[in-house]
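Example complex used in Figure S2.
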Amino acid sequence: MSSEFGKAVKISIFGESHAAALGVVIDGLPAGESVDIESIKAFISRRSPSGDYSTSRRESDEPEILSGVFRGKTCGSPLCIMFRNTDARPDDYSDFEHVPRPSHADYTAHVRYGGFNDFRGAGHLSGRLTLPLCAAGAICRDILSRRGVNIGAHIASISDVNDEKFNSTDISEEVLGSLRASAFPLLNPTLEEKMRSRISAAHSAGDSLGGTIECAVTGFPCGVGSPLFDGIENRIASAVFAVPSVKGIEFGSGFAGSALTGSENNDAFLLHEGKIATRTNNSGGILGGISDGMPIVFRVALKPVPSIAVAQKTVDIENLRECEISIKGRHDACVVPRAVPCIEAAAAVTLLDMLICERN
Amino acid sequence: MSSEFGKAVKISIFGESHAAALGVVIDGLPAGESVDIESIKAFISRRSPSGDYSTSRRESDEPEILSGVFRGKTCGSPLCIMFRNTDARPDDYSDFEHVPRPSHADYTAHVRYGGFNDFRGAGHLSGRLTLPLCAAGAICRDILSRRGVNIGAHIASISDVNDEKFNSTDISEEVLGSLRASAFPLLNPTLEEKMRSRISAAHSAGDSLGGTIECAVTGFPCGVGSPLFDGIENRIASAVFAVPSVKGIEFGSGFAGSALTGSENNDAFLLHEGKIATRTNNSGGILGGISDGMPIVFRVALKPVPSIAVAQKTVDIENLRECEISIKGRHDACVVPRAVPCIEAAAAVTLLDMLICERN
Amino acid sequence: MSSEFGKAVKISIFGESHAAALGVVIDGLPAGESVDIESIKAFISRRSPSGDYSTSRRESDEPEILSGVFRGKTCGSPLCIMFRNTDARPDDYSDFEHVPRPSHADYTAHVRYGGFNDFRGAGHLSGRLTLPLCAAGAICRDILSRRGVNIGAHIASISDVNDEKFNSTDISEEVLGSLRASAFPLLNPTLEEKMRSRISAAHSAGDSLGGTIECAVTGFPCGVGSPLFDGIENRIASAVFAVPSVKGIEFGSGFAGSALTGSENNDAFLLHEGKIATRTNNSGGILGGISDGMPIVFRVALKPVPSIAVAQKTVDIENLRECEISIKGRHDACVVPRAVPCIEAAAAVTLLDMLICERN
Amino acid sequence: MSSEFGKAVKISIFGESHAAALGVVIDGLPAGESVDIESIKAFISRRSPSGDYSTSRRESDEPEILSGVFRGKTCGSPLCIMFRNTDARPDDYSDFEHVPRPSHADYTAHVRYGGFNDFRGAGHLSGRLTLPLCAAGAICRDILSRRGVNIGAHIASISDVNDEKFNSTDISEEVLGSLRASAFPLLNPTLEEKMRSRISAAHSAGDSLGGTIECAVTGFPCGVGSPLFDGIENRIASAVFAVPSVKGIEFGSGFAGSALTGSENNDAFLLHEGKIATRTNNSGGILGGISDGMPIVFRVALKPVPSIAVAQKTVDIENLRECEISIKGRHDACVVPRAVPCIEAAAAVTLLDMLICERN
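Predicted assembly (1440 residues):
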């Protein structure tokens, strides 16, 4: 336990990479919210493999809403969206049952579940589980959007190539929208070619890459969140680590800010059109766990894809002897572009929950 | 809501900086565990101000156990520890009621609680609330220790001065113990002077510093934690952001690892004395949210202390006009040394909860 | 919110009476437990309408396991079971959109969900939602059974006809098993005819009946449960009220026991084959919220089915005027026999959760 | 685990009968609510022993608010109220360490906590823990009262003497207020003498009595609560079973209603001064778990006090041999009058939580 998240808006994710289906139950959505299946499809299509160096598994990812929607709107009861697995090829993984792939969760899941886990394609620990997360995120994102809250993210780095950063005091919905419309979202699109060549080179070498993603949320009202364990940072962090490969998160000036002085890092308050704002936004829109009305900005670090073709040392856990493994299955050389909507989804699910939960 | 954390071992923290008292209720501790008040005192004394550039507020921080201990052992019912506030000087803060300090939570708490929050010394959002967190952490740490799990942390950086990093595949209890015994814990103690001079310089300039802390946990059994939202990363992250000033966290190779290739970052499995281990530990002891038996290693970033004497721009929120503020109260020029036990406490509370919760 | 229950074993129920499907996600089942689809089918068939005075809606209630089972066993990840609705006739209910049926939840759901609720057949508030509850109960029951915990229930009364009560100090698995095998479970089966004639008479009169159900659990180990809010009584009660029409619950001697003296009601301890037992079981196997090793025994009261053909006063909530209603749809004259497995399911889900949760 | 309750307004109760103190942390109270210590004292004084046949333990029960109140109002952070134990006489219980009192929780707590529980006066399982429950209830009650929600309860029966029942369609605040003002609250006060004589007779015989309590809540808005596991019945039930000795609960017509026909038990809707109401209130104000705007009415059954002077059979659990026990300590012959505010408190805590939680 547990694949559940949320307090007022609770999501419960089910499914395995090669099970009959996967999906999500969302309990606690406000009633009367339009649910647009095309919007959901558009959102989840952004996490679909598409490029040359992505997995060759091709799933239609056709969402079926089983419950919770009546006359096109949420009806107050739990909304369940399901996706059938259609292109599952579990045999691709039979070699790995007793030979855990380095830096994958094969070994830990084996121990955790006493060897009963569905190891095929990592089972419930597969990146494929971000599909229901994105479906939930799409629904929450649309509800947030109708309340004036917008979310967007971009590839902040792949390997050693770094995109620009958000201007965190002034992020327009135009910028966020164009990022969301891009299959390779960058603030400086001229970097795409360079990043793609890095991915191509890694793929050719049988290797893989990681990267970072920067996400921004605008229009989130001031005064939401709580100190100690229920702050926005706590909650977003606990959601984004659900995305496989995420190994770090920082808000506002984050790790770099920790090397500054107070006078450099503090965000002076000012009046802007009669409202309180801050001159800089090193806080990432969050003070004491509570939103301050400025854009919420955070960055996550994704480790390089652990599935690589080059030979690696591992251990045959059945016979307890060291051996080598070379992973030839269907996988990506770099998941960062596909992970962008997943990070947005994690933010959307968290922030809608917090917005509803704390409007008490 | 809410100042609560945990699933099997639940903590509920109460108190304000200048209220009568502050404390913590810990519900769900295993019965029969020795509770050593001296061990608790020793732990919490590490977060007490002591140096030249720390707050001059002097609290005795005398813990009183109100319940949950019988004949020196946990008795299965909720354990409550309380600390009286004795050196509270709420008048120090009267100037700030309507003039939020930049990068403090004064403004957001005011909005969050409709102006009813106890603003004196940041109230419930004060760093003083890490005192009950440390008390809970001390108890959990002792219980973990009896199960072979040890926790230690060091100052990884202050300003631009960086300590060495843990050798994450081989961390001895000796090293952790000597860190815990130090008021200024460093892997390379020769750096203390340099760091202290940075703090001294910042203090003299009416300014402040931040830094990073690296924490390690050894002996944590393999197979604890769950994928998606209940992984060790999710849970530790949601705890450490309860420590004021924390703005980032990374596990294992973290942000730096995101720039590596898979072949560089992957941790090969090997057999070590008949048991499965990894050659490197870029995963920080966690794969798929589940412990892999290697040391759990993470780093957190703390922003510079927002209370600085140099003049800052802010807004008088009562009269809605811009003004200046210079903070002369009792506060630290750098909280990183005092935050070290707080980070350990956050890890202890989380990992005991997970250990007990998932032993199902 | 919310259709979720449980702490270690969490269930999340979704679906509406006339939605595409309904089902349940069970998160936290121990890995390695056999899942027998035939056993699930047998369990849920007991809640199917069958008699002459039951609803004429005929659903195949074919369970489809979407996830969480691998090689016939639970694999540690959330188990989702889904049932398609096939015989839904939503038009039967169109008359009721603005005319709430007395003692149904039409009116309260309308207010609760701002008029957006799926009112057809009561939507998510339909008795049909006990189908996924029973599916979850069947799985939990089988796991409990393998741990020596058995559950059975009987019709304790319908209208003014009362079955015998359990001999609460000595309940054999034979008795429980024969109850579970019966479509009209009674400790004194000779009462069936009398009860059926009461139902028949009510049906002929366009009226309906209620009744009570007594449930027993044997083999549940001593020492599970907690005082205050997490006792067995608290938890079972919070589960059984999920079954529509349940309006009361009592444990052990219950309401009748409240009129006894302490010397009459107390359960003396004794040694039985070297183990501690009680001479009587007026406590219903629970002291201080904690199991005492004796059979857990409780009774629930179900109100008469609110759907009746005789004319009733109600209010047209669209036009705010009083009117009459006569309910001619498909419904039961008495749901007590069909509710028996639902009560067992509520007990099974609760007790497996508590057994696993508190084995810490 | 756990002594916690609530979702939006969470209470965490700590303390043992003979520990240094006991109290409650309330997390999530709306900010800006007046906290009147005199009102709290008046409420908790109603559960104090007073009569001739009550325990002779005399505690001052002086509440100390440790946190969460600023300038006389809730400030948004957790409110902690503490009570010191002053008249604890733990030696009174030394005889019982290995000789569990029949129908007390001594034996089950011993097993549950591996013998480490504080057995003195039942420790955390003592009726004394209703003191912090009442303190929390008083605060929640006052907040509800300012929102037009009133709560009152009366002794519905003691032994074989039955008070009248509420007229559940029309309960005035005058009636509720006079009940709350009475030390022996009855709708028909002429029954007091008869009830007191029953208690006196039981006391003289070294025996004890139980009884029932009926509670009503008026002014609770329509449309609060949720189907399945989060209905008002589920939630109130899970709270009232926290009061020691409660063994049953029924809402509206409850067990008696289960013997009626639908046409007898259904509550016809009508228009009353332009608003929707019901002609009768057999539903106890709850349909489908959701409030319908009518008074919420429920009854609870309390078993007779298990502490009796007459000799009882029990087992010496250290030496595993049968023996006899006669309980001469300080205890009540009948707790029903003192339990009345406890039941109100359970209702207040639950309904404030639900009111705030579901205003989403």
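Chain A touches chain C through 48 residues (CB under 8 Å). Residues 4-357 of chain A form a domain with the Chorismate synthase, AroC fold fold (CATH 3.60.150.10).
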